[in-house]
Design a protein that fits this description.
The chain is mainly beta and about 100 residues long. It is built from no helices and 9 strands.
């Protein structure tokens, strides 16, 4: 019997998120598979570059003017450690509202 595994990744919230000063946003990478996976590994991309973060969630904070450097396109990728399956989420855009001082 041949079992075909499918692994998808969903990034929530999806679409475009705009943060105002003082806010934070948690991105959650959710894996969805038709088979039981024992272990998965998360990879995150920011503006198409892999970043050093391997948890299933990532928090973006807008607490200082320097935070705007975190604005851009995020994407997560899920890989199974016990099977050769990979799922990549659609991209989401994080933008920052203007800071009036």
């Amino acid at each position: 019997q041949l079992i075909v595994g499918i692994l998808n990744a969903v990034l929530l919230p999806s679409g475009i998120s705009i943060l105002e000063f003082g806010e934070s946003l948690q991105l959650s990478c959710i894996e969805n598979s038709n088979i039981d996976l024992h272990a998965v590994y998360y990879t995150w991309k920011f503006n198409n570059d892999v970043i050093n973060h391997t948890n299933s969630s990532l928090t973006i904070n807008y607490y200082s003017p320097d935070s705007v450097e975190q604005g851009g396109v995020y994407q997560c990728c899920v890989q199974s450690l016990d099977m050769i399956l990979t799922g990549t989420s659609p991209k989401v855009l994080i933008a920052f509202g203007s800071l009036i001082t």
